[in-house]
Amino acid sequence: MEPSALCLLLTDSPICLQAETRADRLDRFLADRIPELSRSRIQSLIESGHVTLNDRVCTSKKIAIQTGDRLQVSIPDPTPLEIKANPIPLDILYEDDAIVIINKPAGLVVHPAPGHADDTLVNALLAHCDTLAGIGGVQRPGIVHRLDKDTTGAIVVAKTDAALQHLQAQLKAKTARREYLGIVCGAPAAESGSIDKPIGRHPINRQKMAIVLEERGGRAAVTHWHIRERLGNYTLLQFQLETGRTHQIRVHTADMGLPIVGDPVYGSGRRIGVNLPGQALHAWKLTLQHPTSGEEIVATAPLPETFVKLLDVLRRRK
């Protein structure tokens, strides 16, 4: 490592970053480079002694970080929570002793969060499968990957620790395929393409994600797309994710000038005569290797009724 580089260690995995020439405040610096943690969570870790600066515990969030400094962040195990089982109906696409694949509806949050303590997919799964508790952590038992609250479609959940590790490894190695269908505002000139732009927390609105340079904390994000159907001033696109960043498809399409129809955060939120529950984005197909048998599993989630209605309206208009 060159002496001008700053080294950030997160959970024992070294990540060397080129620091800016100017000094930056510790909490702001870490929040920009660890987008999966909120700034308040970063501040809590600093205050509780889980951050070291040049091998010394640092409890001041305001200290200035300089080029050449060495940071280490330790993420403690989550405090056990009482998560209640809630028998919410589930649309199950596939299930056996190792995994379950759900067709998630719009409006269902994947795991407990502020404002959603007992009405999430995790609560429903705990009622459906009493052996799930404790798999992969108390707050997100069995969760391999996530879908946004109003994004519908296929999501896989592990029933054992071995299955969880196997599925996570497939996502990391990009051997599992996640394909989406989305309706965007606008018409691409090309028939297909790829978007390779890093994504991180929005520098001003921390509730949003944005295109952020990697040297400023963005993480590599690649989305492949091709046209399924042209619908006048709208287009049905098929996406394949190479990475799985928060709001990845929504951020990438908005950056192209082709926001997802009905997206209240990255688009206009227009409904076009159909009362969509959220953005017109659907996790259509999930292809993975079964963690026990090695068999290829392909789960296809039917389009939700509102998505089909929207397609019908646009086809009549074009």
Question: What key attributes describe this structure?
Answer:
single chain, 318 residues, alpha+beta, Structural Genomics Hypothetical 15.5 Kd Protein In mrcA-pckA Intergenic Region, Chain A, Pseudouridine synthase, 3 domains, 6 helices, disordered N terminus
Description of the structure:
This protein has 318 residues and is an alpha+beta fold. It folds into three domains: 5-73, Roll (Structural Genomics Hypothetical 15.5 Kd Protein In mrcA-pckA Intergenic Region, Chain A), CATH 3.10.290; 92-173, Pseudouridine synthase; 177-287 and 291-317, Pseudouridine synthase. The protein has helices at residues 26-33, 39-47, 121-128, 161-173, 248-255, 305-317; strands at 5-10, 13-18, 24-25, 51-53, 56-57, 64-65, 70-73, 92-95, 99-104, 152-158, 177-185, 192-196, 199-201, 209-211, 222-231, 234-241, 281-289, 296-300. Strands 8, 9, 10, 11, 12, 15, 16, 17 and 18 form a nine-stranded mixed beta sheet that branches. Strands 2-1-7-4-5 form a five-stranded mixed beta sheet. A hairpin with a 7-residue loop joins β13 (199-201) and β14. The chain starts with a strand and ends with a helix. Residues 1-6 and 11-21 have low confidence and may be disordered.
The CATH architecture of the largest domain can be named as 2-Layer Sandwich
Task: Give the ordered list of helices and strands.
Answer: EEEHHEEEEEEHEHEEEEEEHEEH
N/C terminus separation: 57 Å
Q: Please tell me the total number of domains.
A: 3
Tell me, briefly, the overall form. globular
Low-confidence stretches: 1-6, 11-21
> Which CATH class of the largest domain is shown?
Alpha Beta
Determine Rg (CA atoms, Å): 21 Å
Count of distinct strands: 18
**Whole-number mean pLDDT:** 85
- Give the CATH topology of the largest domain: Pseudouridine synthase
* Percent of sequence in beta strands: 25-35%
Structural class, from helix and strand content?
Answer: alpha+beta
Number of helices: 6
In CATH, the homologous superfamily of the largest domain goes by the name Pseudouridine synthase
Proportion of helical residues: 10-25%
Summarize the biggest pleated sheet: 9 strands, mixed
